[in-house]
Specification:
5 strands, Ferric Hydroxamate Uptake Protein, Chain A, domain 1, 5-stranded mixed β-sheet, 4 helices, alpha+beta
Length: 142
């Protein structure tokens, strides 16, 4: 066997050995990629991840996990009322209330907390949304 042929055989053998040990994408040896977090939703799984959250109020949970829910949106309308563009809340799809109502709710009663931007809030609640975002709270208490 010529030196070139021998060298080629050795390289081929080494390449095959390395390829056999390389993990194959999607194989059972790899951990599954975590599901992307929905930035506009707080689920029971989010609350269960930190047991201390269940002892807090809904407003405290929102501040801790998704503070952007509380960002107010300015309005440029000269005739807008004082509440226009502010964050409001709706508990179990009931009427729109002040976001401060969430400080009187216990997080242990929550199934999910969902953020609706101003456009989504207007579609769901109409003029009652006052051109601002709405935090939807779904509870276990009916």
């Amino acid at each position: 066997m010529s030196p070139k042929t021998l060298c080629a055989c050795v390289l081929l053998a080494l390449g095959s050995a390395c390829a056999a040990k390389a993990p194959v994408s999607g194989s059972s040896d790899e951990a599954p990629a975590p599901a992307p977090r929905n930035r506009d939703l707080i689920t029971q799984a989010d609350l269960d991840a930190d047991p201390g959250l269940r002892a807090q109020t809904v407003l405290e949970v929102v501040r801790a996990l998704r503070p952007h829910f509380l960002n107010e949106r300015g309005t440029t309308l000269p005739y807008a009322d004082q509440e226009a563009g502010k964050v409001h809340a709706s508990i179990d799809n009931a009427r729109i209330v002040s976001v401060s109502e969430l400080s009187g709710m216990h997080a242990n009663d929550v199934v999910e907390i969902r953020y609706l931007n101003a456009s989504q809030a207007m579609q769901k609640f109409g003029i009652a949304a006052r051109q601002g975002p709405v935090i939807l709270v779904t509870t276990t208490v009916k």
